[in-house]
């Protein structure tokens, strides 16, 4: 039996990616929509084979409690609204799949984790790249030693944000600029590929004084992550440069490049070692359908999802340290959590 989801927020990501992906998912389906625009909701509901009764406004969200076929919600709202709707969903007994970044800072994201734990519902941070075969192949190449001892990584994720009115440029709604929106892919993927947590961060940021888009958030951030064994990662993120996404890992005996690294389709992985140059191919697949499938299966089995809420909190801990370093000009040390291979 597939798991029914209510998709909360019918913005660009929901409409262009998630609703189509759910149709191809084996284990999940969309059973309800939550939106402030009922007409738009009804049009999408009909296209999905649902009825106008399956469309709810934000005010009616609590009525999802009565819907036993809605077992999970997928929160696809501006970042500062994730917490309110995750907690309302948890209180209604629904499992929560929440878009990245999980919240707007560590305390906000931790409140989501705590609320879901108290309510006894599952929580997953929607890190689609951790459900992508090219990213798993990169992780495997690194962790199985195919590149020899890894020394350095670099990653770029930039795009132009040209609408001065968009919520992404409002600090209160977004929690930051390009860092929590697109830079988070570099941060999360470096951690995923290495399977290690950074011990220190060092960062610089730039906010132009004369550009109306950047009155509240930064335009660009450059951040460095230091890992055990002297491994260093250098990452760049910006809202001011044409779309580029890359990840490179350099080891003593080989290297790999993902370019592009973070698109919805067409991630390209190249591995180079002494034996030559390889471009493994994994056919076409939908990252969002894989993400839906994973969460639905974990809801059924009761096992913790691969990218739980804590994974989202960990990125917030590191992003908060990145901003702290950028403000102070100092290296920020993360503290080792006793008994765990985690630095906070
Ligand atoms: P969007 O602006 O296209 O849609 C936002 C939705 O929230 C709309 O339905 C809008 O009506 C609703 N909304 C409610 N209150 C709002 C308010 N005060 N201001 C603006 N919108 C409001 O945004 P999006 O690109 O769909 O992003 C939504 C979430 O998805 C964000 O958390 C974002 O980080 C995440 N996202 C993830 C990916 C990914 O690849 N995983 C890609 C894009 C966006």
UniProtKB/TrEMBL annotation:
* A Pfam family the protein falls into: GFO_IDH_MocA_C3
- InterPro entries attached here? Gfo/Idh/MocA-like_OxRdtase_N (IPR000683), Gfo/Idh/MocA_domain (IPR050984), GFO_IDH_MocA-like_dom (IPR055170), Glc-Fru_OxRdtase_bac (IPR008354), NAD(P)-bd_dom_sf (IPR036291)
Q: Which residues form the GFO/IDH/MocA-like oxidoreductase domain?
A: 137-256
Q: Which domain of life is it from?
A: Bacteria
Residues annotated as domain Gfo/Idh/MocA-like oxidoreductase N-terminal = 4-126
- Which keywords does this Swiss-Prot/TrEMBL entry list? Oxidoreductase
Q: Which GO terms describe its molecular function?
A: nucleotide binding; oxidoreductase activity
Regarding protein family, the annotation reads: Belongs to the Gfo/Idh/MocA family.
Q: What is this protein called?
A: Oxidoreductase-like protein
């Amino acid at each position: 039996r597939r798991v029914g989801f209510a998709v909360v927020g019918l913005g660009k990501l929901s409409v262009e990616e998630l609703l189509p992906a759910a149709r191809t998912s084996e284990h999940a389906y969309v059973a309800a929509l939550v939106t402030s625009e009922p007409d738009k909701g009804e049009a999408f509901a009909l296209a999905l084979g649902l009825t106008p009764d399956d469309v709810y406004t934000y005010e009616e969200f609590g009525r999802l409690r009565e819907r036993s076929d809605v077992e999970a919600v997928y929160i696809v709202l501006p970042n500062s609204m994730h917490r309110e709707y995750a907690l309302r969903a948890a209180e209604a007994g629904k499992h929560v799949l929440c878009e990245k970044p999980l919240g707007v800072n560590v305390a906000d994201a931790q409140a989501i984790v705590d609320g879901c734990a108290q309510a006894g519902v599952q929580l997953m941070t929607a890190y689609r790249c951790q459900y992508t075969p090219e990213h798993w192949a990169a992780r495997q190449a690194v962790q199985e030693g195919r590149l020899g001892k890894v020394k350095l990584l670099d990653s770029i994720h930039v795009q132009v944000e040209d609408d001065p009115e968009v919520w992404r440029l409002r600090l209160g709604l977004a929690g930051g600029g390009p860092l929590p929106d697109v830079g988070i892919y570099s941060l999360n993927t470096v951690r995923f590929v290495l399977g290690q947590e950074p011990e220190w961060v060092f960062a610089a940021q730039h906010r132009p004084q004369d550009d109306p888009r950047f009155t509240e958030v930064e335009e660009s951030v450059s951040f460095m992550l230091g890992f055990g064994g002297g491994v260093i990662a250098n990452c760049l993120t910006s809202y001011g440069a044409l779309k580029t996404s890359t990840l490179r890992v350099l080891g003593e005996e080989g290297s790999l490049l993902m370019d592009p690294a973070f698109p919805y389709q067409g991630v390209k992985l190249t591995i180079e070692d002494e034996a030559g140059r390889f471009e493994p191919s994994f056919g076409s697949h939908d990252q969002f359908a894989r993400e839906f499938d994973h969460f639905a299966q974990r809801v059924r089995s009761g096992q913790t999802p691969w990218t739980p809420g804590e994974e989202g909190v960990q990125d917030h801990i590191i992003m908060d340290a990145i901003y702290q370093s950028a403000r102070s000009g100092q290296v920020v040390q993360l503290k080792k959590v006793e008994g765990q291979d985690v630095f906070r």
